[in-house]
Q: What sequence folds into this?
């Protein structure tokens, strides 16, 4: 039976990438004034609640204004 120790080499880099992406997304949301869809508050909620890569990816696909 597999233990959590067997998955740590995969989980630790994944968790680090997740938090780096979330941090980059939140910084981008807070420093930009315009979005394709939605408001700053909406995108902050989506990014934080959908933290498992989904929220930040949705922001960069649907909300980020160039």
A:
């Amino acid at each position: 039976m597999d233990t959590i120790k067997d998955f740590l080499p995969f989980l630790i880099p994944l968790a680090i990438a997740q938090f780096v992406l979330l941090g980059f997304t939140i910084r981008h949301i807070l420093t930009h004034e315009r979005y394709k869809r939605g408001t700053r508050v909406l995108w902050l909620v989506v990014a934080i609640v959908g933290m498992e890569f989904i929220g930040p990816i949705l922001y960069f696909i649907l909300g980020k204004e160039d």
In short: Helices lie at 4-31, 40-49, 54-63. The CA atoms of residues 36 and 63 lie 5 Å apart. The chain has a mean pLDDT of 83.
